[in-house]
Amino acid sequence: MASDARRRLPKALRSPGAGPFVLRQLLHDVPLSADGANEDIKINCVDYLDGNLYIGTTASELLHFFRIPPDPHDPESSASFILASRRNPEYSAASAATNGPRPGVQQILLLPRVGKLCVLCNWTVTFYSLPELSEVFNGTQVKNCNWIGGVDLNDDAGDADDRSRGVTILLSLNRRIQVVKIGAEDARVIRKIDFAGSTLSVRRDSIACVADSQSYSLLDVERQLKIPLMSISSLDDSQLGGTFGQAQDIAGGPDGGLLRSSSSATARSLLAPHDTQGHGRSTSLGGFITGNIRRNDRRPTEADDVVFQDAEPPPPSRSPAPRASSSSRAQQDSDKPLPAPPTESGGEAAAHPESAQVPARTVSPPKTGSAFLRPHILSPASEEFLLVTGTGPLDPGIGMFVNLDGDPTRPTLEFDRYPREIVVDGGASDLSSSRPSLGTEEEGYVLASMVREFEDGLHHGLEIQRFDVNVGEDEPEKFWLEVGNTETKGSIPNTPIGIRSLMQSEETLFEEVVDKLCQRRFSPFRGNPDTPTMSLRSMDSRTALSMERQSQEKELFDRDLESDDESLPPNWEATRNKEGREFVRRLAKTSSRVAVWAGADIWWAVRNPLLLQLEMALELATSGGQDATVGNTDERHQILALLDTIKGRDARTELEFMTLGYIRQRASIMLLSTFLSSPEPRFSDAETKAMEENLLGGDLDARVVLALIPALRNEIVVNRKGIWIYGGVKATVEGYISSEEIRPSIQTINSLDHHVLLFLRRFLTAWRKKKGFGSIPDEVFRTVDASLLLVLLELDQDTPKGQAAKTGSVRKDLYDLVDHGVDCFDRAVDLLESYGRLFVLSRLYQHHKMAADVLATWRRIVEGEEDRGEELGDGEQRVKNYLPNISNQALVQVYGVWLAARNPRLGVQVFADEKGKAPKFEPTQVVAILREEAPDAVRYYLEYLVFGKGSTAYVNELIRYYLDIVIGDLQSSPASRATVIASYEGYRALRPPKPTYVRFLTDNAPPNDEAWQSRLRLLELLGGGHDYDAAAIRERIDSANLALSEQDQNSGAAQQQLLVPEAIILDGRARRHEDALRLLVHRLGDYDTAVSYCLRGGSSLAALAPGRRDSLPTRETQVRLFRVLLAEFLILDDVSDRVEQTGALLKRFGGWFDALEVLSLIPDSWSVDVTAGFLMAALRRLVRERHESMLTRSLSLAENLDVNYDRLVKIDEKGPVVDIET
């Protein structure tokens, strides 16, 4: 007896739709009784062919129903059946009385090849024509028959084009098996096999698996060879164990037909003479057949007999009898009765004890303790049989697979109870199984009718399990299906269930699949889809502004669509719905050939589509509720586990592809609904990640996901065609949206939980990676970009102001979003403006190459408008760096001038940049523009022209600018004047050696003192040899000195000349060398510069420029200047400086002085040491000159002598010449 744990299946296995099969109504409320008075009539057998349904009942009636196909013009119509005839097959009353109770119509065997139908009614076989059920073969009957069948399953019995071949069947009589060939015109016995008491047979080619009331055997119907296999009941030990597995020749023999030998070697030699070394089973039927010479189809002693019998059979025998002669065979017109197979299984017997009586048969009963079990034989493959054994009707049954040699082929099957009836559907070799249209190779299932015990009592149903998988050590998965689980009313679980594989399959349409997989138009808004769900007045100003702008965009978008030449045709949505439904209807069809009946109802056992199985699993995971949300953590885990089972599964058909996508979408929506609406318990990171992966992997339109979030629903963009999703997904989403009326909804983005915002950030970022897929409309990415931007802006509010974007940060994602472009440009501008993120807005403009808007946005920030992120940094510098990248000259001019007005030095660099993309500005044009709009920047641009480009045209103007700055600073600032005077005094106080005054001034210049820097530039220009108006400049300096002197006089300060270096340069340029040297020596104390001045002729205070050797003065000029300098040194106030500088000058440049003149100028009181060097050099020079002059005279004398000699020689050569004067 099975344990309670085995008798009770889990809820998932008992729930309708969760298993691989479902029941679909074939015929409801069959009129089993002609007058409806007898309610005890039951269905015994069913078969179907070419729209004709044949039903055999316990009332010995054969009902014929004709199928009326559905209306082809109405896709929603279904087929129906009408009763065509009600026939009472003929049967032998004597045979029925002998065999016990009358079971009625026991079997219906269709033979479509020859157009015949065989009926076994009350142990009598009759024959009829198809489909009208007219008697054939002159009313031939076969009495005392236990079973009709044995049609070769490898032969296409439905091939009606070859009627001449006929069909060979097996008639299981009490004493033998008759091999009968049914033709179009007659039925003849072609062979009789001495096999007594057979009750069931299934044949493949010539090999049949046959069962009697106690055991199974393999039988070669052509050679009449038999191998006993096993007992039906493992408790039945009435059969001798030694006979099982040994081949027997039942064609006849004095020893009863058992092939015996004196040794096993002899037996192996007999069964397989060509393989004496074989390791296989020597007693297998295949081995025996291959070891014998093939015989003729009929033995010489046999003759074709008509089927009709009228003689009584000999007494029964369990052992094979000797072959009889044809004359003795002719006398055997009938067999004595054998025990009939039980009409109900053990389970039914347990429920109805009165029907489990043992029929009266003249056979030896099984040994006490064994149970009487109905045999079951199926053939799931072309070379395989399935046999069922057990110990009792309430105990488990075992299914064993054997091949044509009797060897096991697969792992055994276990049935929780011994089956009442059993069928096989599908498998690699079952080409007529129940399978979906457009399907590939189907799985193989065994469906067993049985009774099982549950908590509420006994239930009749179908136990379903796979037979074509190797389950290993794990218990195979089983499913339980009851007729009470179907939609048919009136069915009760205590009604016995019959099941049979029919001759022909029938197509079934799953409207549930059609409803769920049909694409339907979805509106993310409640009510009218053209109106937003929120009132503008209920929002803050930022949201209201955005919604108002979006509404205006939608009106414009709709107006553009309406004006489009490709406008939508009338009733386009209904047309699309119809076409989509027709498409799915073609995929949602399946065929079935397995019929199930209980009471007066008949169903098709149809392969349950994967979609319905997974849908049922979802319902079970959510406690069977219709709500989209998932209640607790366990339910979430169940849904995620379900999604894991289909993750990575490759779809084999288009229907399966759509199914997997649909389930991922719907399950993900259910998880997301819970994620959004249930604060506790929170999703773990792993659960959130799995939900995100399935939302993305299911290819669900992102707008559907956003429709679940009221705060983002108004970011959804929908064109006139709308959003099309699976009907089942649409119902789930709309159910969640409709529940907002009773659930407080979050209307603003800042009200969303942080974990929801983070989810949206990841989900929408991943969705953007699908850009470029042609199958996704542009409106999806417009929605995704707008929503993602809104989420990132909300999250980035927590980022510190001015912080740089770091990898992985929200700000970095925000920058990446706008830098790579968004499809919702106008909406993005509105959002960025509403959040006050001007810098991010400028980046958006930059991506779209909108330079004017970029600069305008930066200008707003620089001029003080709030940028909440404060990311711009140095805005003026950023503008300056950006302008060279612009090719629009007018735009460069506008913002160059604006920048020059704010930061003259920086703004001038825009006009001075020679690498910019815009056309170059002419200097005169720039100067004019700057003078008018940014006058403070003119000086910097002139500096660029003069110092950078070497242009002399603007030297005078630049000098005037510098003078204005320097003089203005001196006039306005007493401190500046004091600083200048202090610089003179400080320089004079320095002891030699010391730098020149210009170097001293440069080294001590304050870094940010514009006046000081301007003076240095002024000195550089004045002393640089440029062509400028020196007189005008001198006049300006003199007037400035005069004005400064008046200021000093008024203030009581001593009158001093402040611009000394400038005056020196101008005096030198005007050839007033004495004045210049005087200022250098006495005002500045710059003695080295004074010496340089003399050497250069007063041309410049600066170093001599390269390549200007021709500018050096003549020696006479230098001598004159050195004489003036010596005179100035001799009148220095400081005696030490006077002696030191005079001695140094005479020592270094004594060659430019006359010794006598110097001696006359040097005071007599000075030490000789002061002029010793000069005098020694002068004497040496005098001696050198005297020697040079003497040498010159000597050389001249020699030259004179040489010339006179040459003259005399020439005279002698010429001779005397007479000059006669006339």
Automatic annotation (TrEMBL):
PROSITE patterns attached to this UniProt entry: CNH (PS50219)
Domain of life: Eukaryota
Key word Repeat present: no
Gene Ontology cellular component annotations, sorted alphabetically: cytoplasm; membrane
Keyword Transport: yes
Comp. bias regions, Basic and acidic residues: 550-560
Domain CNH per the UniProt entry, residue ranges: 40-474
InterPro entries, alphabetized: CNH_dom, Vam6/VPS39/TRAP1
PANTHER family, alphabetized: CNH DOMAIN CONTAINING, TRANSFORMING GROWTH FACTOR-BETA RECEPTOR-ASSOCIATED PROTEIN 1
UniProt protein name: CNH domain-containing protein
Organism: Lasiosphaeria miniovina
Higher taxonomy: Eukaryota, Fungi, Dikarya, Ascomycota, Pezizomycotina
